Amino acid sequence: MTASFSGNNGVAARVEELLREQLLELGEDPDTLAPHLIMQSMQCEVYPDQSMVYIWRDIPILRVVPEKTADGVLWRMFTREDEPVEE
Q1: 28: closest CA among 36, 38, 39?
Q2: Which residues fall within 8 angstroms of residue 61, CB to CB, at 6 or more apart?
Q3: CA distance 57 to 23
Q4: Which of 4, 20, 23, 51 has the fewest beta carbons closer than 10 A?
Q5: CA Rg, the chain, in Å?
Q6: Helices (H), 1-87
Q7: Beta bridge partners of 5
Q8: d(CA 56, CA 47)
């Protein structure tokens, strides 16, 4: 699933929603996981271009990429099933 958001409103909520969906697809129920287990198993790598990759137990599950536009920043989100298209 690819999603795009401009500005900061709703970006964090959408990231959380996509992470939850991806965990559920991997057979993990985020509602039943203890916070310390999530902390041990989830990793977020942030790159110099401000893009981020969320990794669950060595499996990249969500990529968040900023794209600068005339109106600000557009955040593109790619799940495991998506392949971002290089422009």
Answers
A1: 38
A2: 19, 22, 23, 26, 54, 55, 79, 80
A3: 11
A4: 4
A5: 13
A6: 11-25, 35-41
A7: 75
A8: 17
Q: Which two tokens stand for residue 41?
A: 């198993």
pTM over 0.90: no
Tokens of 86: 């290089």
Q: Is the dihedral of CA 26, 57, 31, 62 positive or negative?
A: negative
Both tokens of residue 26? 């991997």
Domain regions of the chain by residue span? 2-79
For 45-64, write each residue's pLDDT tens digit. 999 999 999 999 999 999 99
Q: Which pair of tokens denotes residue 43?
A: 């990793």
